[in-house]
Amino acid sequence: MKNIAVLGSTGSIGRQTLEVIASHPGSFRLVAMAAGTNADLIIEQANKFQPALVSVSTKELAERVKIHIPAHTKVVYGLEGLIEVATHEDVHTLVTAVVGSIGLKPTLAAIEQGKQIALANKETLVTAGQIVMELAAKHQVSILPVDSEHSAIFQCLQGENKSQVEKIILTASGGSFRHKSREELVNVSLEDALKHPNWSMGPKVTIDSATMMNKGLEVIEAHWLFSMPYDNIEVLLHDESIIHSMVVFQDSAVMAQLGTPDMRVPIQYALTYPERYPFFTPRLDLAQVGCLHFREADFNRYPCLRLAFEAGKTGGTMPTVLNAANEIAVTQFLRSEISFLDIEKVIEETMNQHEPIANPTLEEIEEVDRWARERAKSIERRC
Ligand SMILES: NC(=O)C1=CN([C@@H]2O[C@H](COP(=O)(O)OP(=O)(O)OC[C@H]3O[C@@H](n4cnc5c(N)ncnc54)[C@H](OP(=O)(O)O)[C@@H]3O)[C@@H](O)[C@H]2O)C=CC1
Ligand SMILES: CC(=O)[C@@H](O)[C@H](O)COP(=O)(O)O
Ligand SMILES: [Mn+2]
Fold first, then answer.
1. Is the pTM of this model over 0.95?
2. Which fold has domain 150-262+285-382?
3. Ligand 2 atom with least separation from CA of 214
């Protein structure tokens, strides 16, 4: 029996993780879960899974939730609550599936306690990749990728000599506006931006996908997970999201991982690794699919992708700034306070105003993260 804790249980990844847990009751047990404000779903999940510990966003919500769930379930709240869930003594594997860099501190705390990490939350690695990976190495903790591209690469690398990898190719759908020119992006709506062509996901990652910042964050995530130099990471537009990513080896062989777009597959693999458990879903039917399409990813069409490569190559605290400014800009766009094209402007201006710190400490990262959020907010007001 593997004991699991989930951060972000009410979200898109969190809900699918609980589905996977429920589909293998003899193998997995949910012992702790954390979410934000979705009280109804938190109560429903706590009653169904009966975890020992639940965390919610605020004290008021904790008091409200407590009345409706089993008395033996402890209810905590806030960042301390997230950390308590992540480090619960019975937990073997932590699934980090909150959105945003709020995932960083609980993930670090879990690593310090020797918990295995199934990581969906890419912002954690973008904000503080070096610190996370060094701590994981120190405590001999595996960071198992949940993100579909990184799970694909991880699968392609099984049994391979990593020093013989020439490059990795991250596939990208191109997002909700992939058939629009830059000129056509001027007046796009929030409603249309939220219509991802292939995946049903939370709002933040869906907007990131439309700007291609999602792929930019994934480039930095891949750099840290696979120790891959940025010059050996390529992004390829692929309309169907069926090839989840590829690895090119020095003998020219290309390994790819394919499947229908269903996040329960990489979630389950991160929980069962190195085993594969059955999963009853319609199989990929390539004859039915017929054609797969590919195009080059153009930095002029997708400036957020360029900015992410620049931030990654600059290193130090620049990826922290990229991520923080993006989180602010996307939040503002989701509130209809700025336009779609303002997102990239806010990020680039914030980055331009930052003097990066090399090899930052966690405290320096937190300080820079706060600075970047404030700076990004002030830029937005001018747009
Ligand atoms: N969705 C997907 O298919 C994929 C997502 N990812 C990554 O996984 C992460 C999660 O994405 P997704 O599931 O789509 O996001 P969602 O927006 O669907 O879910 C976010 C979750 O985080 C919780 N949450 C947000 N803020 C806080 C907070 N301050 N304290 C506690 N809980 C909080 C939410 O709680 P509540 O709703 O209760 O407020 C919710 O449970 C992101 O980093 C994303 O990039 C990666 C690959 C694919
Ligand atoms: C499902 C998943 O892993 C998402 O991160 C996905 O990659 C988004 O799709 P695109 O960024 O390719 O549009
Ligand atoms: Mn992805």
1. yes
2. Rna Polymerase Sigma Factor; Chain: A (1.10.1740)
3. 11
